[in-house]
Amino acid sequence: MKKARRTRILSEKLISSILFACGIFSVLITIGIIISLFSEAIQFFIRPEVSLVKFFTGTTWRPLSSKVSPDNFGVLPLITGTVMIAVISASIAVPLGLGSAIFLSEFASDNLRSVLKPLIEILAGIPSVVYGYFAISFITPLIQTFFETRLGLDVSFFNALSASIVLAIMIIPTVASISEDAIRSVPQTLRAGAYSLGATRFEVVLKVVLPAALSGILAAFILAISRAIGETMAVTIAAGATPRVTFNPLESVQTMTAFIVQVSFGDAPAGTINGQSIFAVGAILFIMTFIMNIISDLIMNRFREVYE
Amino acid sequence: MEQNNFRTKIGVQNFNLHYGEFQALRDVNISIPENQITSIIGPSGCGKSTFLRSFNRMNELIPTVKTKGEITLDKININELDPVELRKIVGMVFQRPNPFPKSIFDNIAFGPRIHGVKNKEVLSGIVEKSLRQAALWDEVKDNLNKSGLALSGGQQQRLCIARALAVEPEVILMDEPASALDPVATLKIEDLIQQLKEKYTIVIVTHNMQQAARASDFTLFFNMAEDRAGYLVESGNTVKIFTNPKKELTEQYISGRFG
Amino acid sequence: MIAKEMEIKTKATEMRSNLVRRKRIGNFFLILLIIATLIGLLMLLILIIDIAIKGADWISPQLFTNYHSRKPEKAGMKSAIVGSVIVMGLTGLFSFPIGVGAALYLEEYSKKNALTRFINININNLAGVPSIVYGMLGLVVFGRMFGVFSADSWLVSTFNLPVGETALGGLEFDLFGLSFLHLKFPFGRSLLAGALTMTLLILPVVIISSREAIRAVPNSIRLASYGLGATKWQTISRQVLPIAMPGILTGIILALSRAIGETAPLIIMGAFTYVPFLPESVWDQFTVMPIQIYNWITLPQEDYRIHLAAAGILVLLAVLLSFNAIAVFLRKKLEIKW
User: How much of chain B exceeds pLDDT 70, in percent?
Assistant: First the structure.
């Protein structure tokens, strides 16, 4: 009997150790990401052809140029390309996503909601490469017609605006879902209080519910930008491969992610300057999204504390 | 039903209410006297709060609600008014204080603002007046920008009362206003209600019979029928109801034999 | 009496014009909200129609039986389809034990201490890391293995490993002498490396959804089991897991359905674009559907970038749809209503 008990205790311990290892594994992934990115990035920065200062302040990114010099490794064009697209797409996605969330949670009937909500979720399930196709197949011609023909502005075929628009469509469900959670968390009794004072439905939503849900909505906005920054295929296909510092969305730009893809296709072997440059860019990308995700989490946690 | 010599502020004729298939209130007929405190008592689940919410048509916010019969305010059928208009005239204080997550000032100014008052000075005047009426002015006057949520429970409830007063209603409905408060805060609220009856008609739902007995002028006793529909058993002068009720059911409830 | 009636009526009338204005503003904004909701859905509709129009005619048996070719009429995505299937199969195989194991640990074993909180935060963060970063992780950790198998590495010199003569080096041998356990290090641009990369990508999502499924098992079941003298693992393996399994499987299938559409991580870790053969082992090179589609989009000929790409997308979406349908079906069929 004792032996059976001992083996049972041992096997229970063994199992819990295995499961613990599985749990810790996720931490290993994070460590792996940090080590892989930063070890290669450091290799990049210690090269004589690269200067740390010029990397972060230089406005020319021409890693494929025959003249390999620190002047050609200024990362700002990639960053402005990424940020411009992210900001434009978030600016489109947040009003649309928030509007949907408000409509679905405060005005739509349960039946309507059960139909529309899954449909909106479908937008999130469509692969990025499909959005890239849609961008150059439908959106870009539309933009060209509108801006060139109607307004007489120069629109290059690959442009940031087209990418921003499809990106916005892609992240609408994320914004809508988080905003909706925030709005639903606002206690019903606050709405009742506002109604009892003689407010119309719209006033209750605008003047009581939304202000109360504000930090949750803010978290949604930051998360939207973070997702847009990390997006790859749609922007690679639609925005172009021309790194330049510009705030004109009608021009072609290159995002950090698009650059990494471009190099990966070119088969730059390990140890070459281009092979390492993608890790430097990747490290920046990781840090940016990491910080934004943390901020968004902090805001959400504080918001939850108030209402739960 | 007599209410002595007081004018009828709210009249209820043959009022029935259903939540979908379920009947919550059956055949209620009563007159609520003006400038008096009317309390509604009865066992849990007999429809007291539902009845109260019918006066400012808050029940309509629930989609499955259907009503039959008539409720009149100063002889006007309340269904003829826009609910928004009605709720300005008939205000409500809830069981648990529900101040908005805004400053004390903005909580009280909310009502006047949505009804069109924009002038800063006028608003300040209204805020002060309402806070004085709610006996809260002295405690908060030095910092009206403090969040409404930073007050104690009793203070929050008085804030909600001030907020309701700020739109200048004629009737104030209170759904167990002191049940979430400690005894000291409760007494303050009860005193406040006594003062308010001078200018307002007050209807209170309470499960606390002692409170009804000592604090109200007119009492309605509701009970739950076998099919769980609520109905009015007896109504009348509070003193008479509590000392010499006409119905046996009333007597039983008051002496604590059920509910 | 009449005076009081008049008073209320006057009050109401005074409010009336203000009220009408307030309501009109409300209605105006309601229309804006409805438009906001419908724009996204409209875009979805246009997307589907656009792709269907441009690609439907190009769906033919060739699409499934042929490799990519320089002649569009002959081009197909056979290797991409097979590659996707194998990668997803392996990914599911790898992520299931680790993901469910981690979920079990967190829900059934872990105590509420700082380490657990840290693991939680970590998993949530990983779920938000861009997929391209996972590609870079896979490249370094699985594809190149930090370069420890190249001819000049410290590992090779210390242990005198018989690496290949090229600059990349590489170690190949049969484990235990068995030829079917032929191993290659580093994993390079192989199916194995790709599957491992995708496993890491979907692991956070698998853990999160498995946790929800495990949490949904009523506690009374566990208590009943313990009350009968069962051990923790017996309770988990015989009661909790079976009940949570539909939810867990649904979660994995949904995660895989998102993974099928992922392009960037596999490009970065080295999947190929042109693969004119079917992989025969996990060490072979491969491609997947989204990469093939991307390739066609970038080719200059209209037949590729407009039509074949759209046809490929339709196939991809069909696969996605079926995965989701399977997940929903599974969930409905196996769910227990408490």
Answer: 98
> Which of C7, C10, C11, C24 is the best residue to mutate to test the B interface, defined by the most B CB atoms within 10 Å of its own CB?
C11
Tell me the helix, strand and coil percentages in chain C, rounded to 5. Answer: 75, 0, 25
- Residue C1: pLDDT over 60: no
Nearest to A260 among C19, C109, C132 (CB): C132
Residue B238 counted as domain residue: yes
**Confidence band (pLDDT; 50, 70, 90) for A308?**
low
Of A189, A197, A200, the CB nearest to B111: A197
User: CA-CA distances (angstroms) from residue B48 to B189, B240, C43?
Assistant: 20, 21, 50
Query: Facing residues of B23 across strands?
Result: B18
CATH (domain of B228) = 3.40.50.300
Burial of A174 (0-12, 13-18, 19+ CB in 10 A): buried
Average pLDDT for C322-334: 87
On whether the CB atoms of residues C185 and C176 are closer than 8 A, the answer is: no
User: Residue B43's domain spans which residues?
Assistant: 8-98+169-254
Q: Give C337 to chain B, closest Cα distance, Å.
A: 26
CATH no. of C59-148+186-334: 1.10.3720.10
Please answer yes or no on whether C140 and A103 come within 8 Å at the CB atom. Answer: no
Total beta-carbon pairs less than 8 A apart between chain B and chain C: 33
Q: Is B53 on the interface with A (CB under 8 A)?
A: no
Min Cα separation B27/chain A (Å): 25
Of C4, C5, C12, Cβ closest to residue B85? C12
- Establish whether the linkage from the previous residue to C186 is cis, with ω within 30° of 0: yes
DSSP C286: -
User: What was the pLDDT predicted at B2?
Assistant: 47
Sheet hosting strand B90-93, strand order edge to edge: B76-77, B65-73, B8-19, B22-33, B230-237, B218-224, B37-41, B201-205, B171-175, B90-93
pTM for the whole thing? 0.88
Phi, psi of C220 (to 5 degrees): -60, -30
CA distance, residue C234 to nearest chain A CA (Å): 9
In a 3-state reduction of DSSP, which class is residue A154?
coil
* Residues contacting residue C94 through CB under 8 Å, at least 6 positions apart: C195, C196, C199
Count how many domains chain B has: 1
Q: Cα separation of C81 and C74, whole Å?
A: 16
Give me the interface pTM, i.e. the ipTM.
0.92
CA distance C315 to A57: 45
